[in-house]
Amino acid sequence: MPSRPSPMALQSSSPYPSIFKKKSTSTMPTAASYLSAVSEADARARAHGANGSTPGSTPALSLSSSVTSSSEDTVLDESGLEFNDGLSYPRTPPTSEQVFTTVHSEFGHCANEKYRYTSQHRAGTQYKSYPEQDPPYYILLTTYLSYLLVICLGHIRDFFGKRLRPSHYKHLVSQNGYAALNSDFDSFYTRRLKTRIDDCFSHPVTGVPGRTIVMLDRYSPDYNVTMVPTGTRTRGLNVSSYNYLGFAEAKGPCADAVESSVNRYGVSACGSRLEGGTLDLHQQAEALVARFVGQEDALISSMGFATNSTIIPALVSKGCLVISDELNHASIRFGVRLSGANVRMFKHNDMNALEELLREVVSQGQPKTHRPWKKILVIVEGLFSMEGTLANLPIIMDLKKKYKFYLFVDEAHSIGALGPHGRGVADYFGINPRHIDILMGTFTKSFGAAGGYISGNKVLVDRLRVHGHTGPYAEAMSPPVLTQVIASMASIMGISSGLEKDKLNALVLPAKSEEYPGLVPVSALPSWMPVAPTMADGSDGLMRLRRLAFNARYLNRGLRKLGFITYGCDDSPVIPLLLFNPGKMAVFSRMMRTRAVPIVVVVVAYPATPLVTSRVRFCLSAAHTKEDIDTVLIACDEIGDLLDLKQGQGERWPLKEIINRAVELVAMPETD
Amino acid sequence: MSTTSSSLEPFFTLVSQSLQTIETNFYKIPGSAVIARYVRSSHRDDPGRTLLEVILIIFAIRTLLQSRTKAETSGKHFIKFSEQEIDDLVEEWVPEPLAQPLSPTDQADLDAVPVISGPTGPKPKLMNGKTVINLASYNFTALSGNAEIKERCVETLRKYGLGSCGPPGFYGTQDVHIQLEQDIADFLGTEGSIVYSQAFSTISSVIPAFCKRGDIIVADRGVNFAIQKGLQISRCTVRWYDHNDMGSLEKVLEAVEKERRKKKLPLTRRFIVTEGIFDHDGAMSDLPKLVELKLKYKYRLILDESVSFGSVGRTGRGLTELYNVPASQVDMLVGSLANGLTSCGGFCAGSHIVVKHQRINGTSFVFSAAMPAMLAVAASEGINILRSTPSILSTLQENVRAVRAILDKVDCISIPSHPASATIHITVRTATPSTPSLAPPTTPMSPHSPLSPRMQASAGAPPFDIDAEERALQEIVEEALAQGVLVTRARRLRGQELNQPRPSIRLAISAALPRRDCEKAASVLKAACVKVLARRR
């Protein structure tokens, strides 16, 4: 029985042609022909590769001959594993004067200076995210219907399953005096809905989560209840990892710095910060983070989630009010719940709702007693990771002046990923970061490390050091992680040697001196840390920022021009593409994964999003090249036709035109 | 009169016509005749019922139309203000400052935090250039700075980079994480395990993953802060038993069962939550008794081994190895990879069902990035080393005994910690011989209610002067540091802990130190205690 593979978990899922398809495309009218076309394309790609013009070993060889300093860096070292997948090597081999120090599969080679952009809010315009479009009614209707159908099927299966195969339900019902750990009712959604598409989640991977990622293939013999590894691997284009600036690298200046740190420090600080776990490295990193975000002081915590969940209770307490955006991250809600403060929520990014709420709570005071609130803390995220929207900071700052609340901005996704200097959402809008009371962020995303920080004025941060839960109880951040943070931040900021009269300065964007002090003096860095030249002049960091900005804008606008419904701001590196039907999620993910050039995507559904707006989420990186974005657009175009996803309004361009006019498309001003 | 009726004529015809249309349309609906017949007959049988039903329908419509999130605007406490008044109130309101400056004692505490320059280890160098003997850092198993681990970490770095760049659900699960989970499960002998990326956040996520509103938790009064936070977030019914007192636990279990029978409450999930070796005082749980009780009363056991994993047992497997209790008897075994294996993160080991459940419901597992590959490998390698070298743990226990042999004889301090515990808490011995510490034989006053987490029978001040003792202990710490021994006061969030734990100095003994150094450090500490505490008397 278990030898029969479930059709669902097989590599090539059977995509059903949309029954609502009106305009049948002549090229691939049915799923069968689609699949044959895919395999043909696959064969073509392989034949192409064998000719030696694109993927294969020749470009690498010619490349290594052209590189003098670090030739072995660019050759892929995969210990005997061959990847003829069209992802490991650039499609067009570099010319002799181009020197790339990164591994193409980790950080793509892109020398075209046109594919650069600066992420910045245009002064004088009002920020508003792209209007959220509603899908046609039949999409909504079928979405609800499919949920209904799956729920009914689930209940029917439960009904018969419980009677016919009671052993399978044993852990869901009370037995010998123990209540079920997870009752059948509580787990219904996971058992009967999520399990159906479980092959799209928690996929094990290996290697660097950079531009590409290597998946460990698996299949399920029993309809996704268990997963069996097949032992093979697939390299896919990675548009899922939070690797915004492409610092997830196994080679390069940051990795070198981390290696010397491991050799010097080992891997642990052995204890909590207040109980003997503070190293000199912690202090250096905290000073650097404060400098980077433009605040007086900063505090580092060893886990991003814990930064919120353990620090917020030290900020507010009973008698205080937290006003929170309804889509704030779970860690914020966790922290607020622990704090004992009152919470009110406002509609996502709706500034009128926020102001109305503020007027109400300030005038009413605390519930029942009507005493004035001790303090009001507004918590918003800089970049909402499920929506791609930015906090409307200019308006919030105005409201802050009027209503005297304190502002907490969670920059988990925006730090490093937004703004001309990469300093997050405040930098993007050109707001002085010191006017924001608390800036929180994580190192997991843009910096390729782990953990998080809280920054603010010195009095506040010192108080959090002593009264936050992290200080006395949680383990301190480990030295190699701190080094990654220091190295990656320094390479964005640029390093001044102090001796050479910063002629390199020109490479770094004109810094607003008082807000973001320009180069880091070399004395602020650990003395043993190796510093690469590209890191010192800030050119590496700047290149990353500008490539990310281009990629984000290109894919976002490209998808809209293709007719997809996407949410969020044009400059956001997180791009949610709306799928609506729950079934399409799984099909979309599987089809992307089984293409000739596999693309790894994240699909998200209820409860992380509202029931009807299931979506696929692309996370872009500076590591992607323009060709990679083209690949994603081509894939989306094909699958989008097949799944009837192009429901957006507005002007549409044909795929070819989008790819050819990419630079123009990116440079176009925001439409109203 | 007639004029009015004639002017109303078209109105009446309209009404009757629309009534007619409604009626015909109504009868067009399939099954409508049945409803009509039912209404007619029920009205004939009992006209009062028709009225009641009409009222019911109106009520239902009203409920449906009401906004579901009933804001305070409609509450009876809502006061209506005009816009002008609101503006004035906004103008008038002065919030408290976001953060008060630290009090002088807090500031002094913060300034006194030792900063290690360069790597930490058994003998680190401080910022002032002084090399000290380290009895503060958690390095039980001497894995910190281990050359093999470093080498494996660099290899991993060159293959995986540093960060995992994503939560486990979204391509953050790397093969090294799966390997680590397997290693932990094999090491302990459970079906599976799950790795969280911070030790402190592990148990405060594990508890709410399983315990929901209405479930019952019976917890020790002396549990650590992370557990307290987990209990708080889970919102279930918590009953407390006296610290490390199995008799009290049994009484509470009995009482809960009696109450359930009396009130005929439905069967809910029930858990005992306690620690292996307590973070607050180093006391050790009687695991065989715990297991016996949990089986007898049909509870599940959540055991936090954050301190005991990697510090007791023949090869450091923790309490289960020490007491020779199969780890499968503990339903959720939580431990720290940061303390025990000098890596980073925490784990929860248990059955497949327990582990799988957390992969979807463990908040800090789901919503945070997976731990860096390098640290996972460091932990795996640590387990390998522990497995193959049992001498580490015997050295550790020898060192513990050596330190205890010296400190136990000092009469101005008392040590509530278990003799085998690698964390040793030193508290000031009070002049009154009644309560030596937090230890079980608490005040023989009225047995206090399991509803209250308070350890002291009187809810008022604890029987010791926190500030004075903290000051004295800090003096000892500084005195020891001056003599070249790094120790630390156990830092507590005073006012946030449910109970005020007795102020203590927490030693963490390491197998990395030669016995001679341990003895030397203990002697220094002894001298410091005598000097400072004698002065106080």
TrEMBL record, chain A:
Composition-biased stretches (Low complexity): 53-71
Family, per entry: Belongs to the class-II pyridoxal-phosphate-dependent aminotransferase family.
Keyword terms of this UniProt record: Acyltransferase, Endoplasmic reticulum, Lipid metabolism, Membrane, Pyridoxal phosphate, Sphingolipid metabolism, Transferase, Transmembrane, Transmembrane helix
MF term (GO), any: serine C-palmitoyltransferase activity
Protein name: serine C-palmitoyltransferase
Organism: Wolfiporia cocos (strain MD-104) (Brown rot fungus)
Chief location category: endoplasmic reticulum
Gene Ontology CC terms, in alphabetical order: endoplasmic reticulum; membrane; serine palmitoyltransferase complex
Catalytic activity: L-serine + hexadecanoyl-CoA + H(+) = 3-oxosphinganine + CO2 + CoA
Top-rank taxon, per record: Eukaryota
Compartments, as annotated in UniProt: Endoplasmic reticulum; Membrane
GO biological process: ceramide biosynthetic process; sphingosine biosynthetic process
Cofactor(s) the protein needs: pyridoxal 5'-phosphate
UniProtKB/TrEMBL annotation, chain B:
One term under GO cellular component: endoplasmic reticulum
Region called Disordered, residue ranges: 433-460
Domain Aminotransferase class I/classII large: 131-524
Main enzyme class: transferase
Swiss-Prot/TrEMBL cofactor(s): pyridoxal 5'-phosphate
InterPro entries membership: Aminotransferase_I/II_large, AON_synthase_class-II, PyrdxlP-dep_Trfase, PyrdxlP-dep_Trfase_major, PyrdxlP-dep_Trfase_small
Listed Pfam families: Aminotran_1_2
Origin superkingdom: Eukaryota
Gene Ontology molecular function, alphabetical: pyridoxal phosphate binding; serine C-palmitoyltransferase activity
GO BP of this protein: ceramide biosynthetic process; sphingosine biosynthetic process
Keywords, ordered alphabetically: Acyltransferase, Lipid metabolism, Pyridoxal phosphate, Sphingolipid metabolism, Transferase
Family in the record: Belongs to the class-II pyridoxal-phosphate-dependent aminotransferase family.
PANTHER family membership: CLASS II AMINOTRANSFERASE/8-AMINO-7-OXONONANOATE SYNTHASE, SERINE PALMITOYLTRANSFERASE 1
Protein name: serine C-palmitoyltransferase
Source organism: Wolfiporia cocos (strain MD-104) (Brown rot fungus)
